[in-house]
Design goal:
The radius of gyration is 16 Å and the shape is globular. The chain contains 9 helices and 7 strands; from the N terminus they run H-H-H-H-H-H-E-H-H-H-E-E-E-E-E-E. It starts with a helix and ends in an 11-residue tail after the last strand. The protein has one domain: Roll (FAS1 domain). The protein is of the alpha+beta class. Strand 5 and strand 6 form a beta hairpin. The longest helix is centred in the first third of the chain and has 11 residues. A 7-stranded mixed beta sheet has the order 2-1-7-6-5-4-3.
């Protein structure tokens, strides 16, 4: 692990977190939506209103949230930066309920990015922007790699950005400009595909 990468992860998990997300080739995305930025609040309200239904479903399925998407991210071993960023943005609860697909940038993907943008996003006053960045990697429902074809298919992220799901000539699944490194990591409430780049919504950082 490089000094820079280890330092970024340490800062992320500390009381005063500062990391930096760089840019790269940017997919064509919609501007962040304030409605979607508060998705976690809506999901928590929905869960409170329908708590009994969620509980019944969990009992029937024999699942608990220990195997949900956020928990799997923490255990994966190559997604430490993402896990810390999700905690910083307080998205653990969102990813513990309902069904999602997470296109998860690896530690290497985050390490390739310049530091100044991540520093900016992790400032307390920019928490909603960090949340928007992370939700740009989340899609409602479970999208297995088998659903990808050579013909790009538009899918909408929880942040509001339109992503392009496709299969490259080499057979690898792609999401917009990012390639899937490891596909179909199953969680109790969805699926995770690790990717080799961070998806930066257009207009997120001026």
């Amino acid at each position: 692990m490089s000094f820079r990468f280890g330092f970024a992860v340490a800062l992320l998990t500390g009381a005063c977190s500062v990391i930096a997300i760089g840019s790269g080739e940017k997919p064509t995305c919609c501007p962040p939506s304030q409605e979607v930025l508060h998705l976690d609040d809506k999901k928590q309200d929905d869960h409170a209103k329908h708590g009994d239904k969620h509980h019944d479903h969990d009992d029937h399925a024999g699942h608990d949230h220990g195997g949900g998407i956020f928990d799997v991210v923490k255990k994966q071993g190559t997604l430490n930066t993402l896990a810390a960023a999700l905690g910083q943005a307080e998205l653990e609860e969102v990813l513990s309920h309902d069904e999602w697909t997470l296109f998860a940038p690896t530690d290497e993907a985050f390490a390739q990015l310049p530091a100044e943008k991540l520093d900016f996003l992790l400032q307390p006053e920019n928490k909603e922007k960090l949340k928007a960045l992370l939700l740009a990697h989340v899609v409602e429902g479970a999208h297995a790699s088998a659903s990808a074809t050579t013909e790009p298919k538009p899918i909408k992220s929880a942040q509001g950005a339109e992503l392009q799901l496709s299969k490259a000539a080499n057979g690898k699944m792609q999401i917009s400009t990012a390639s899937v490194v490891e596909a179909d990591i199953v969680a109790t409430n969805g699926v995770i595909h690790t990717i080799d780049a961070v998806i930066m919504p257009a207009g997120l950082i001026d």
